[in-house]
Amino acid sequence: MEVNWQRGSFRPDASTSLWIEAPEADRSILAEYLQASPLALKLADSQSGNQVVLKQTDALEGITSPEGYVLSVNSDGVRIEALSGAGLFYGVQTLLQMAADAPEGMTAVTVKDEPRFEYRGIMLDVSRHFRSKEFVKRQIDLLSYYKINRLHLHLTDAAGWRIEIKKYPRLTQFAAWRPQAVWKDWWNGKREYCEETDPRAQGGYYTQDDIRELVAYAQKHYVTIIPEIEMPSHSEEVLTAYPELSCTHVPYKQSDFCIGNEKTFEFLENVLTEVMELFPSEYIHIGGDEAGKASWPNCKLCQARMKKEGLKDVNELQSYSIHRMERFLNSHGRKLLGWDEILDGGLAPNATVMSWRGTEGGLAAIRSGHKAIMSPGQYCYLDGYQDAPYSQPEAIGGYLPLKKVYGYEPVPDSLSADEAKLMYGVQANLWTEYIPTEEHAEYMLYPRAIALAEVAWSKPENKSWEDFHRRALKIVDELKAKGYHPFELKNEIGNRKEAETPVEHLALGKKVTYNAPYWENYPAAGEATLTDGLRGGWNYNDQLWQGFVTKDRVDVVIDLEKETPIHSVAADFMQICGPEVFMPERVVISVSNDGKEFTQLAEIKHEVVRDDAVTFKNFGWEGEASARYIRYQALASDKFGGVLFTDEIVVK
């Protein structure tokens, strides 16, 4: 963005009119939009002073993106020029934001602005908890105001099928309904579906007319809706309604389609044909994530398919299905988009990868010549807690405050200039397992989605956390005035206090020997983690908590290098039952001077109970001892198992 302030000002009033020079479709959209905006501008019969002028042109100095614009304010009015209707629309959003910030009059200025990324997305999961079309429209209103241009709808999953498919009526007569309104109750129960006519039926779906209405509404806000139809997994609802498409043909038994069954592809192609007729988007999202593949090795049809196609394992069988669906989409002029598991077994030739398991999948796609959209859980999963968990509604876990979303940098220095061009954009995701109401969904979205919008639009050098935080406090009040339900940012508690300051202690920087290995998925700082002085925050996704999953869980020995008087040995653990993170059931602390013979100082027993709270507990010993070596063991409950996470063994 380039901003040049000038002398003078302009204040729109009731006599200010609108003049638009653009193709008729854009002219109609923009005129209708500005008439309904707070400026309430009406089209003029001629061009004159005291006007807002919108002009689509073939070239603009310094603007390369079709979504870029130049906005000029002077005492006579406002002029916005752009290369497309979308560019004019985004110039209008800046105008509306400026006018709202300066009700007494906007200072004269020239703004040259264009987006950093072409793809700027938000995903709404409408499967786990169905959302009304009116709710979706309200989010389009707000997201487009902050220049988000993609709305990804997660339409199908185990919890419910949410789009009418004429050829397969059981998907909406049966697979869209369940006896429990709240996903958690359904998930912890029998996970059954029910008929739409059942008095217990909870759920819903979008009719094809609803989808047409939503697509048309989004187009008037220059937003593209991208549908996601899950395959080959997350499909329990389909395989219960149409069990012949699973490997066993038994309802309620499987989440993966049978890839050896030709009827599977007949079904998927028929579904996607109807989906493509409804959604004009360039991309169709096919999911592709978390396929269990459990039945494929024992399924005669899947094994026959593997033999016929020369596939060496089930990963290649999944890749076969993705490649085949891509060819089908490509033959209809569309492109395939999928989560980063579509890399497994070989990436389809023209696919774009949405990277959620960190950034590695997206970078691998880019380095192989494919586009990528960055959506790593650590920065982009808005279903996690945005403040101290004890102060928030129950969430799936995680800790993602506004500052962390805003600080995300999608393009690492390791990418070359040519590779960076394949970074298509960024997306934040709102999965809704623990978000049963529309008010709660907005609470989780805002203001974090607005932080993501700025990450997607602005170059790093044009960003300032202090400035954004100041604006975000004001935005929250504006959203509340408009009837939205954002997180009350002014009351933010912040990170766990232990994480704010490094801790000094006797074992700081000392060598740790692991008798049982840490979990490679959550290594934190590796062998330095437990004595680096850094304490963890509200969740293990901060890369300061180290995970342990082996049978012996935590079993480490710290070498203090010489015999040392010690008075306490302690470590913190966390419990978040949703993702199977539990406290230890037993902790044993021992000491030695030779590293071979250990004397037990303490055995601490703890009853592990499953509950909804995110909790932290310190397990330690206090007393008088002298030793060179300290052994710390933490064992899991036989009943619950799960992962143990600890951050630092503090010795004093």
Number of DSSP strand runs: 26
Main-sheet strand order equals: 8-9-14-15-16-17-18-19
Ranges where pLDDT stays below 50 over 5 or more residues in a row are none
What is the end-to-end distance?
Answer: 52 Å
Helix content: 25-40%
Mean of residue pLDDT values = 97
Q: Estimate the global geometry from the Cα principal axes.
A: globular
Give me the number of helical elements: 17
The class by helix and strand makeup works out as alpha/beta
Task: Give a quick account of the main beta sheet: strands, pairing sense, barrel closure.
Answer: 8 strands, parallel, barrel
Question: Strand share of the residues?
Answer: 25-35%
Radius of gyration equals 28 Å
Provide keyphrases for this structure:
26 strands; single chain; 25% strand; eight-stranded parallel beta barrel; alpha/beta; 652 residues; 17 helices
Task: Report on the architecture of this protein.
The protein is an alpha/beta fold. It is built from 17 helices and 26 strands. The strands form five sheets. The protein has an eight-stranded parallel barrel, surrounded by six helices. It has a seven-stranded mixed beta sheet with strand order 1-7-5-6-4-2-3, with helices on one face. Helix 1 runs parallel beside helix 2 (85-101), helix 3 (133-145) runs parallel beside helix 6 (208-219) and helix 9 crosses helix 10 (314-331). The longest helix is centred in the middle third of the chain and has 18 residues, at 314-331. The chain is globular. The chain starts with a strand and ends with a strand.
